[in-house]
Amino acid sequence: MWNQRYRWKNRQIREQVSVIDGQKSPTLLLKNARFLHSILKKWITSNIWIYQDRIIYIGEELPKRLENCEIIDCSGLTLVPGYIEPHVHPFQLYNPQSFARFASQSGTTTLICDNLFFFLHLNKKKAFALLNELNESPVSMYWWGRFDSQTEMNEEETIFTNSEIKSWLEHEAVVQGGELTGWPKLLAGDDLMLHWIQETKRLGKKVEGHFPGGSDKTLTKMKLFGVDGDHESMTGADVYKRLMHGYTVALRHSSIRPDLNVMLKEIHELGIDQYDSLVFTTDGSTPAFYKQGVMDMMIDMAIKNGVPTIDAYHMASYNIARHYNLSHHHGMIATGRIANINFLSNETEPTPISVLAKGQWVKRDGQNLINDKDINWKEFGLEPLNLNWELQSSDLQFSMPFGIEMVNDVITKPYSVSLDLSIDYLPQKHEESYFALFDRKGKWRINTIVKGFAKSVSGFASSFSNTGDIILIGKMKKDMLLAFKRMKEIGGGIVLAENGKVIHEIPLPLAGLMSDQPLEELIKAEERLKELLYERGYSFTDPIYSLLFFSATHLPYIRVTQSGMYDVMNKTILFPTLMR
Question: Full-prediction pTM beyond 0.85?
Answer without folding.
Answer: yes
